[in-house]
């Protein structure tokens, strides 16, 4: 008679393997204080060993594939497909210049904010150092929203570091190996991030739902929250710095578990399914990084140079306007600089271009004067037109002011009653 | 029943492959399963490790080998995700065992039967996955059977192309 274990060895092996895996599953799951079962975010040594083996086996070929793809793309983009690159360069340079000016204008506010935060004892964390990384692979499952980066501990990455793109936050480093790291996306069910709604200032916790959507859970019902409102990081989770873009409110649904509470479905700002390059925030600090400070200094300098360029341009325009033949009297006395620089009452001189009082051209004497000619006896009496003192020029320091060459000149005789005039 | 029942010669035939095929094909399936979704922007309507498990289980016709193959592939899939280790492991263990058990009793040379087997085992794998996640682990999991049906069709289509290619790699006497 065949021994029992020989006869039933196939089902026995199956049962043993299944039992071992079920026991392994039981070890990994824990119950939260709220009574829900969840996976332990910290892998045990045995689990981590299996993940390490799998990563060591799969990551090198993935990096090879990804490197080959990148190489082919770079070859095409850097050496073959150079159409319109020059124009793009110019456009980008213009954008950089514009952004630098905007940054310079915000610089003082930021510095003041830092000073106030220091006074209040509040430490705002700024992104101090980042590491650029490429997404090389996924989990291979549509139930696990994780992906792999080509950087690991050797590049300074560690667990729980924030992963972002210029568009918005992406996730956090869940596990890190020597040359790769596993990132948990914000739309995974086990993720979590502190967020705040930009307008209503409602705070909440962002996590993924079972359908793979990012949602803010457990919010008290609030009629002010509308689709389209921006969502930012709140900075309280010790992972994401404050103020990073998260997404916009897509829709609001009732919390299925609690009455009076809502869940807010978010459209992530970052394209989580189409990631190529991301930034891992490896360090945050209560001050700006040297790179940021250098950028701001450049912006400041550029702002000064830009203002000088605008002044030069304006001066050249004025000279050109003076030399143009026609309505302008070259022998007329120069405008009083004090009058020219005088700001419009009630408005700051540096910020107001005073468009309400355009400069009046100096009218040349007419060859055959009639009753409509300026300075003739038939002119409307001065007493009936309490015209203000003519503003001959605008202050040169006013940014954005139109130069005199662009100011439309009035034809003789088209003046309305009360229009200030200058006699020849 | 002639189609379903193998003849005596085929019943004894166990497919053999070069050792490199045993090593590289499962590895390639794991790598492609992790890499292709990036190109397809998250549309994962296939399960290459399951297809490879079923292929080798059908060809080897050894339930123990099929079981071990399924366990290994499933555990590696779990290890690459943030799931508990064992969810995919259990489902693919069962699929590997069943595929090899079925392979002893049916004509695995017939393409139609292969496609039906892979389709049914894909659905079974999904069902076991849901069972473990929702019942054993008691965790929330969104599920759409249409998606799983599409995935099963995707697996069948991949098998339609891949199985003849792998057949050419077997060692012939």
Ordered list of secondary-structure elements with their pairings:
The complex is a heterodimer of chains A (424) and B (173).
Chain A: H1 4-7, H2 9-28, E1 29-31, E2 37-39, H3 45-80, H4 85-120, E3 126-138, E4 146-149, E5 162-164, E6 169-176, E7 181-185, E8 193-197, E9 203-208, E10 214-220, E11 230-233, E12 245-254, E13 261-268, E14 277-285, H5 290-323, H6 337-341
Antiparallel strand pairs in A: 1-2, 3-4, 3-14, 4-7, 5-6, 5-14, 6-7, 8-9, 8-11, 9-10, 10-13, 11-12, 12-13
Chain B: H1 8-12, H2 19-39, H3 48-60, H4 63-80, H5 87-105, H6 111-136, H7 145-167
Helix pairs in contact in B: 2-3, 3-4, 3-5, 3-7, 4-5, 5-6, 6-7
Task: Offer a concise description of the structure.
Chain A is of the alpha+beta class and 424 residues long. Chain A has helices at residues 4-7, 9-28, 45-80, 85-120, 290-323, 337-341; strands spanning 29-31, 37-39, 126-138, 146-149, 162-164, 169-176, 181-185, 193-197, 203-208, 214-220, 230-233, 245-254, 261-268, 277-285. Chain B is globular, with a radius of gyration of 16 Å.
Characterize the structure shown:
- The complex is a heterodimer of chains A (424) and B (173).
- Chain A is an alpha+beta fold.
- Among the domains of chain A are: 4-39; 45-83 and 125-285, Thrombin, subunit H, CATH 2.40.10.
- In chain A, 32% of the residues lie in helices and 21% in strands.
- A six-stranded antiparallel beta barrel of chain A has the order 3-4-7-6-5-14. In chain A, strands 8-9-10-13-12-11 form a six-stranded antiparallel β-barrel.
- In chain A, a hairpin with a 4-residue loop joins strand 5 and strand 6 (169-176).
- In chain A, helix 4 (85-120) packs across helix 5.
- Chain A starts with a helix and ends in an 83-residue tail after the last helix.
- Chain B is an all-alpha fold.
- Chain B has one domain.
- In chain B, helix 3 runs antiparallel to helix 4 (63-80), helix 3 runs parallel beside helix 5 and helix 3 crosses helix 7.
- The longest helix of chain B has 26 residues, at 111-136.
- The mean pLDDT of chain B is 86.
- At the A-B interface, helix 2, strand 2, helix 3, strand 3 and strand 4 of A face helix 2, helix 4, helix 5 and helix 6 of B.
């Amino acid at each position: 008679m065949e021994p029992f274990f020989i006869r039933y060895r196939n089902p026995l092996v199956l049962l043993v393997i299944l039992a071992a895996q079920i026991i392994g599953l039981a070890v990994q799951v824990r119950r939260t204080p709220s009574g829900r079962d969840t996976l332990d975010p910290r892998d045990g040594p045995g689990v981590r060993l299996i993940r390490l083996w799998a990563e060591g086996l799969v990551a090198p070929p993935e990096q090879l594939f990804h490197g080959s793809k990148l190489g082919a793309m770079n070859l095409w983009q850097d050496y073959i497909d150079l159409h319109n690159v020059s124009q793009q360069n110019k456009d980008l340079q213009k954008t950089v210049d514009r952004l630098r000016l905007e940054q310079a204008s915000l610089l003082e506010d930021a510095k003041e904010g830092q000073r106030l935060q220091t006074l209040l004892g509040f430490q705002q964390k700024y992104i101090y150092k980042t590491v650029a990384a490429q997404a090389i692979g996924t989990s291979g499952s549509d139930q696990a929203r994780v992906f792999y980066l080509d950087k690991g501990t050797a590049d300074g990455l560690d667990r729980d570091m924030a992963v972002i793109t210029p568009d918005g936050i992406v996730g956090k480093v869940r596990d890190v190996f020597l040359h790769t790291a596993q990132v948990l996306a914000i739309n995974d069910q086990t993720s979590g991030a502190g967020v705040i709604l930009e307008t209503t200032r409602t705070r909440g916790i962002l996590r993924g739902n079972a359908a793979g959507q990012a949602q803010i859970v457990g919010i008290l019902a609030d009629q002010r929250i509308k689709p389209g409102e921006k969502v930012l990081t709140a900075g309280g989770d010790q992972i994401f710095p404050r103020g990073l873009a998260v997404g916009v409110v897509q829709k609001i649904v009732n919390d299925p578990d609690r009455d009076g509470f809502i869940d807010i479905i978010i459209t992530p700002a970052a394209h989580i399914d189409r990631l190529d390059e991301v930034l891992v925030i490896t360090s945050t600090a209560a001050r700006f990084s040297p790179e940021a400070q250098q950028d701001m200094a450049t912006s400041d300098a550029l702002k000064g140079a830009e203002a000088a360029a605008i002044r030069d341009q304006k001066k050249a325009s004025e000279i050109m306007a003076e030399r143009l033949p026609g309505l302008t009297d070259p022998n007329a006395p120069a405008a009083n600089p004090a009058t020219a620089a005088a700001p419009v009452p009630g408005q700051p001189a540096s910020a107001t271009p005073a468009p309400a009082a355009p400069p009046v051209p100096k009218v040349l004497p007419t060859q055959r004067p009639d009753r409509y000619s300026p300075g003739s006896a038939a002119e409307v009496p001065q007493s009936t037109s309490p015209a203000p003192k003519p503003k001959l020029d605008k202050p040169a320091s006013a940014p954005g002011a139109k130069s005199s060459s662009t100011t439309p000149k009035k034809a003789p005789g088209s003046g309305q009653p009360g229009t200030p005039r200058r006699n020849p | 029943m002639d189609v379903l029942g193998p003849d005596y010669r085929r019943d004894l035939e166990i497919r053999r492959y070069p050792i490199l095929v045993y090593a590289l094909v499962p590895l390639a399936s794991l790598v492609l399963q992790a890499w292709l979704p990036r190109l397809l922007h998250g549309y994962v309507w296939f399960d290459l490790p399951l297809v490879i498990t079923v292929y080798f289980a059908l060809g080897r016709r050894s339930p123990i080998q099929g079981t071990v193959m399924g366990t290994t592939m499933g555990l590696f899939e779990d290890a690459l995700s943030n799931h508990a280790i064992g969810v995919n492991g259990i489902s693919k263990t069962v699929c590997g065992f069943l595929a090899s058990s079925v392979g002893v009793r049916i004509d695995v040379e017939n393409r139609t039967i292969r496609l039906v087997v892979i389709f049914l085992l894909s659905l079974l794998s999904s069902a076991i996955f849901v069972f473990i996640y929702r019942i054993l682990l008691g965790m929330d999991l969104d599920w759409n059977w249409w998606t799983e049906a599409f995935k099963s069709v995707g697996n069948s289509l991949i098998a339609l192309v891949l199985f003849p290619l792998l057949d050419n790699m077997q060692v012939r006497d």
